[in-house]
Amino acid sequence: MKIVIIDYGAGNIQSIKFAIQRLGFEAVLSNNGEEIKSADKVIFPGVGEAGSAMRMLKSTGLDSLIPELKQPVLGICLGMQLMCNHSEEGDTQGLGIFDAEVKRFDSKVKVPQIGWNQITNLETHLFDKVEDGEYVYLVHSYYVPECEDEIARTEYGVNYSTALHRNNFYGVQFHPEKSSKTGEQILKNFLKLDLRS
Amino acid sequence: MLTKRIIPCLDIKNGRTVKGVNFVDLRDAGDPVELAAAYAEEGADELVFLDISATEEKRKTLAKLVLDVAEQLNIPFTVGGGISSVEDVDILLKNGADKVSINSSAVKRPDLINKLSEKFGSQCVVVAIDAKNIDGKWKVHLVGGKVPTDLDLFEWAKEVEQRGAGEILFTSMDHDGTKNGFANEALARLSDELNIPIIASGGAGNIQHFQDTFQKGKADAALAASVFHFKEIEIWELKRKLRSAGIPMRI
Q: Active site located where (chain B) (predicted)?
C-alpha cells in the first residue's frame, strides 16, 4: 500500500510518519502532484496558521489538486480545517470539500483547547472498534460548528464537529498520531478504508 | 469533557535521563525513550523533557533524542532547556516535538515569544516561569530559580499571553522539592487572570496535592518528577482517585 503524507511545509509531519511506521506501514512525504495522485491513501496534515498554510498550498498548486483526489484522504487538525469552505483565521478561503465554516472558540473557554477530550456520536468505518466517549488529543483555537458532514462530536464550551466525512474525504480535528491507542486504531481504520464499503 | 492532564517531567543530561529512576522491567533506566514509553503505557497524558546539559554538543544530542522519542511515543511531548532561537525550535519541531518550552530566553528577549508563535503557532509555545514569593510579591527568577529579576509573576504572565504563548508552566520555587503541595493561590490567580492553560509545577508529594491543585489551584495540568520516578505515586492510581474525586481524567 502506498501512503503519501502531503508535505507543503506546514508543521510537524514526522510524528504522523512515525505513527504509520508503528502500525507496520511506510509513508512517503511528498508535494509532488503525480506522486500524491498515485497513492492508495493520502494524509493531509497541518499545524500553524490557516492563511499562511493556504498560501503554501496555492504556491505549489496543491489547492486545486487535493479536491480532485479519488482515493481516501485524511485531513488532520489544520488540514481538516483547510478542507472546509472558509476559516475565520486570517479570513481564509478553504478548499470547499466540507460544507462548513471554521470559527474561533469563544473566550469563555481557555483558548487554545489543549489536551484530551472525548469523541462521541461516532459514524463511519473510521471509528470501527472505537467506543463512544474515548479520549483523543486536541490542540486548537478554531473549530468546526456542528454540520452535515459530522462523523464525531466533541464538547468544549459548545458541541462541535471533531471529525468530518464526505465521499472519499475524511477529516479529524484531533491528532490520531498523538492519541495513544485510540489514535492508533483510528489511523489503522483509515489505512483499511475501502471506498466500496 | 476536556480532562485535566498529568505530566511527568524527565531531566535529560547528554541524551540520558538523570535522577534515579526505579521503574521495574526497564532494561536501562537512563534511556529516555524507554522511560517515556513506560510512562505513556502507565497513562501519562503528556511528557516534558528538560535538557539540563551544558555541553556544546547539546543541540545535536537533543535533536537526536527528540527524533528517537517521536519515533516511539504515541502521546504528546514538550522539550525545554536552553532553547533560545527560532532555529533551535524549528529543528526540534521538525524532529517530532509537539511543543517547546522557553524560560530565561523569553525574559531576556520577550520578542522571541512573538516570533515563535507567529512562525509555529501558539499551540507549540510553552513559556515556563519560575517564581518565588518575596515579602508577599511573586518575583520571576531565572537560571533554574537562581537569579532573581524585578518582574512580577502576574504581569509577566499576562505579557507572555499577549505575545502569543499557548500555555504557561508555572513553577513555584518556594514549593519545588518540598513535597508539601503546589502553590495553589498563585495558580488560581493565574488561571483567573489569563485565558490560556496553566500547568502547575513544584511541590507534588501525594495524591491530595494533585486534587488540590486542580480544584483549589484551578490548574489545567500538573507536572511532577520525583514522585513518579521513584514510584511514590503510580499514575494509574492517581488518575483513578482524581476521577473519583470528580476531576475529569482520561483513563
A: 11, 130
B220 is known as an active-site residue: no
Q: Please check whether residue A141 touches B, CB under 8 A.
A: yes
The answer, yes or no, to whether residue B145 has pLDDT greater than 80, is no
Query: SS3 for B219?
Result: coil
C-alpha cell at B235: 499514575
CATH architecture of A3-192: 3-Layer(aba) Sandwich (3.40)
User: What pLDDT score does B165 carry?
Assistant: 97
Whether B70 contacts chain A with CB within 8 A: yes
Question: What is the rounded distance in angstroms from the CA atom of residue B118 to the CA atom of residue B211?
Answer: 35
Q: Does A179 touch chain B (CB under 8 A)?
A: yes
pLDDT given at position B249: 98
Is the pLDDT score of B15 beyond 80?
A: yes
- Chosen for mutation from A5, A12, A16, A107 (greatest number of chain B CBs closer than 10 Å) is A12
Domain B5-244, CATH among 3.40.50.620, 3.20.20.70, 3.40.50.300, 1.10.10.10: 3.20.20.70
Q: What is the DSSP letter of A21?
A: H
- In order of A73, A82, A194, B65, the CA distances from A168 in angstroms are 6, 16, 9, 37
With a cut of 50, say whether residue A50 has pLDDT above it. yes
State yes or no: pLDDT of B20 exceeds 60. no
CB neighbourhood size of B23 (10 A): 15
Residues of A marked as catalytic: 77, 175, 177
**B:102-141 residues touching chain A, CB 8 A cutoff:** 118-124
Tell me what the pLDDT averaged over chain A comes to.
94
How many other CB atoms are found less than 10 A from the CB of residue A108? Answer: 9
Where exactly are the structural domains of chain B?
5-244
Q: Is the pLDDT of residue B220 over 50?
A: yes
Give the residue extent of every domain in chain A. Answer: 3-192
- The percentage of chain B sitting over the pLDDT mark of 70, rounded to a whole number, equals 96
Nearest to A112 among B67, B120, B122 (CB): B122
| H or E, element range at A152 | strand A150-156
Between CA B112 and CA B1 the distance in angstroms is: 33
- Among A193, A182, A94, smallest CA distance to A134 is for A182
Shortest CA distance to A153 belongs to which of A168, A141, A143? A143
- Does any CB of chain B come closer than 8 Å to the CB of residue A111? yes
Q: Tens digit of pLDDT for each residue in B62-97? A: 999 999 999 999 999 999 998 999 999 999 999 999
